[in-house]
Design a protein that fits this description.
7 helices, flat, about 160 residues, mainly alpha
């Protein structure tokens, strides 16, 4: 029953998979020193400074990538991105730039893009995703006559 799987697991395929899994981390560790920045920059832009470079380990990254099927997730993620782009291009044929999308096109985009975007998020490591709408009330700043609209603010 699993003979197709065993026929795929040849030494050459395993070697290619291992090399492709480890290669990104060779470059990452090699160029990681450039990500540190100078003490002046780190003090000025402390939010953006890397504090975890001393914890980076080639073997740790490589083993995590090998055992979490990093290359396979990478390929599936890019196939999802390709699917998203193709669907958007097909659905938006004939749509005038800058005009509102019709309800039919919006529903088509919503239902055609929901599965690949969810798969992409799973491949990226995001298991759950929740969104909440925060009510905005700018009456304190814009006066009691202000009403919220969906139209963007003008310049």
């Amino acid at each position: 029953m699993l003979s197709w799987l065993w026929s795929f697991l040849t030494p050459l395929n395993i070697t290619v998979y291992l090399v492709l899994s480890v290669l990104p981390y060779v470059a990452l560790i090699k160029h990681g020193a450039k990500l540190v920045g100078t003490p002046e920059l780190n003090a000025k832009y402390w939010v953006f400074s890397r504090l975890d470079l001393d914890k980076w380990s080639f073997w740790r990254f490589a083993l995590i990538n090998i055992f979490t099927l990093g290359i396979i997730r990478f390929v599936i993620g890019w196939l999802c991105v390709l699917w998203i782009v193709v669907v958007i291009l097909i659905v938006m044929i004939g749509q005038t730039p800058g005009s509102k999308v019709s309800k039919l096109r919006g529903n088509l985009l919503h239902y055609a893009l929901k599965p690949p975007t969810r798969i992409f998020l799973l491949c990226s490591g995001l298991v759950s995703c929740n969104s909440t709408e925060v009510p905005l009330d700018y009456k304190k700043y814009l006066g009691p006559d202000w009403k919220q609209t969906d139209e963007p603010a003008g310049i």
